[in-house]
Specification:
By secondary structure, the protein is mainly alpha-helical. The chain contains nine helices and four strands, in the order ααββαββαααααα. The two termini are 44 Å apart. The mean pLDDT is 86.
Length: 201
């Protein structure tokens, strides 16, 4: 909503692709400055560069609430383009002040670029460069510029399926009680060690 609000105030037309790329660039700049990304979405390398499926869900929720209006139109080349605008006054939302400034700067500096130009720009960022070197689309992008984050979900699904076929584990009788007794016996040492660490500062 912040990005759409700034775009409206600046007279910048925003379609779905532009919104995603501008928001990605804002997140990337925030991380580059040592802050947390402000959008809260997970970025992946998709057909047209960085994208997050969460954006469609957020768009649908905002449209349902009557906050965002979606207009299907044709662009200069006759291709379908989905434009997004705020319907009225921007609702009050909490947004990190620093991230709000980054969004304003990104929209001001890059908002008038075409969706294609923005896509090309995102492909030059370190997370996208690293993903392209790996050569696999759909990888999660590490905005800090490291290698793409491996997607663990398929492996976890396989492990869950295997776990369901295994018999339940038998606990050794009395093992939990023994562990609780050991932990109680170390309580004084833990307290003393913690006190020394705190006093050492």
């Amino acid at each position: 909503m912040q990005l759409l609000s700034v775009a409206r105030a600046s007279g910048v037309i925003v379609n779905r692709t532009k919104l995603a790329k501008l928001l990605y660039l804002a997140d990337f700049e925030a991380v580059d400055l040592g802050w947390a990304p402000g959008s809260g979405v997970e970025w992946r390398w998709r057909h047209y560069g960085p994208y997050s499926d969460a954006l469609r869900d957020i768009e649908a929720d905002l449209e349902l609430a009557g906050i965002v209006k979606r207009v299907d139109t044709a662009n200069f080349y006759g291709t379908l383009e989905v434009r997004l605008t705020l319907t009225g006054e921007t609702p009050q939302v909490e947004i990190d002040e620093r991230f709000a400034e980054i969004v304003e700067r990104i929209v001001s500096e890059k908002g008038r670029l075409s969706a294609t130009q923005l896509k090309d720009l995102t492909y030059q960022t370190p997370p996208m460069v690293a993903a392209q070197k790996l050569g696999h689309r759909e990888v999660r992008l590490d905005l800090a510029g490291g290698s793409p984050i491996p997607d663990l979900e398929p492996g976890l699904e396989r492990l869950r399926a295997i776990a369901l076929t295994l018999p339940p584990l038998d606990d050794e009788v009395g093992a939990v009680d023994e562990m609780a007794t050991d932990m109680d016996s170390l309580q004084g040492l833990r307290r003393e060690t913690t006190g020394e660490m705190l006093d050492g500062d």
